[in-house]
Amino acid sequence: YLAIDGDDLWLTGTGDPATGDPAISKANKRTTTSMLDEWAEALKKRGITRIMGKLIYYDAALDSEWVHPSWSKSFAGDWYAAPVAGLNFNDNCVDVKVTPTTDGEPVQYTVVPLTKGAEFFNEATSGGKGDVDIKREPAANVFKITGSATRPTDLSSKSVTDPGAFFADALRTHLESSGIKIDGPSQRVAKPLGSKLAPPISKIVAVHESKMSDVMWRINKSSQNLFAEAMCKLLGQAWMMKQGRDQPGSWHAGAEAVRDFLKRNGIDTTYFVIVDGSGLSRDNRVTVRLICDLLVTMTRHPHADAFNASLSIAGKDGTLRNRLKDLPGESFRGKTGYIGGVRSLSGFVKTRRGEWLAVSVIYNGFKGSVKPFEELQDEVVRTLINYPSLPAETPARERS
């Protein structure tokens, strides 16, 4: 929400992970900052070209544990371990593109979104080996571009340290470049405007709402971890609200919400441990039996079609775009998973006789290349496609 209260401009976050997401923006023929353009225009339509007070931002819809304590410290700065908060923008990352100039001279670079709180050191040169790279300091928004570039190159997205401050900084910078000056400082607050997450209608200038279908395909087709982490915390927030507890969303509450869903659907959670939303933590524990039971349960869920549509299609899109290209039609829809030494593949297989099977294959503790293990997983899927017809009386639970 963007709102005006007296002389102050308010930015209120709901925990939506998709705000300014570059992939969703591109799919909708927009840019990362299109929303900020619209917000600037909304202010101007009200005759506002100067904010006399502060830019106040509220990001406590989700708790302040932005980075999970069990994630590897080596992930700091990497896009797939970006912090998650009540305010999220551009996947809580900066995107840098470098363009070479004259051989031996510094490259030129552009940053999206533009902010004043991030510092960049450009040590990369034009020409050479073409090994340009970017790294972030462990606990600061200080980025160093190194190596050399022979052609225009989009560097790997790098996460920021404080999502709420980053969003507020990007908003302030964009508004000022659009001719809207903000006199006062940016200030984080502990309570939302009017003490409710949604500001009073009379004060709202603009609202951004993401489609759940967009969030789901970014989680399941793209494996965008930030989205999964935010949804875990938002599930926890909603679960607590049903129990009369108005508290920020957290990983702990999200885990309890997931466990409650599994139990209500008769799924055994004896060996189940969930500590985050994406599976990036090595403290998570899950069996292939549980995953298959969950997949079967989802075929009966009111939102079964939406869930199915969010999964990658083998040989067609998502993380399965380059796998199982030899399969007929859309014979496999699924989700991949990977951390060092672990590779998983789970989803639905359509047999040649038209039956659907739930399958999950997880490898743990391997060393070296993931390719042999991916090939084994793919072979399991191919085998199941040719699986004989199952007896009609076989319970769905036993078909996975």
The gist of it:
This protein is of the alpha/beta class. It has nine helices and 20 strands.
Keywords:
single chain, 400 residues, alpha/beta, Beta-lactamase, 5-stranded mixed β-sheet, 9 helices, 20 strands, 21% strand, disordered C terminus
Summarize the topology:
Layout (H helix, E strand, L loop, with lengths): L1 E4 L2 E5 L9 H6 L6 H12 L4 E2 L3 E4 L34 E7 L8 E5 L6 E4 L2 E2 L6 E4 L5 E5 L1 E2 L3 E2 L3 E2 L3 H15 L3 E2 L3 E3 L15 E3 L5 H9 L4 H18 L8 H14 L23 H12 L4 H7 L1 E2 L18 E8 L2 E9 L5 E9 L6 H15 L15
Parallel strand pairs: 2-4, 3-14, 4-15, 7-10, 8-11
Antiparallel strand pairs: 1-2, 1-16, 5-6, 5-12, 5-13, 9-10, 17-18, 18-19, 19-20
Overall 3D form: globular
Main pleated sheet: 5 strands, mixed
Unreliable sequence segments: 393-400
- Widest beta sheet: strand line-up: 15-4-2-1-16
Written overview of the protein:
- With 400 residues, the protein is an alpha/beta fold.
- It has two domains: 2-212, no CATH class; 213-399, DD-peptidase/beta-lactamase superfamily (Beta-lactamase, 3-Layer(aba) Sandwich), CATH 3.40.710.
- The protein has nine helices and 20 strands.
- A five-stranded mixed sheet has the order 15-4-2-1-16. Strands 5, 6, 12 and 13 form a four-stranded antiparallel sheet that branches. A four-stranded antiparallel sheet has the order 17-18-19-20, sandwiched between helices.
- β19 and β20 form a beta hairpin.
- The chain starts with a strand and ends in a 15-residue tail after the last helix.
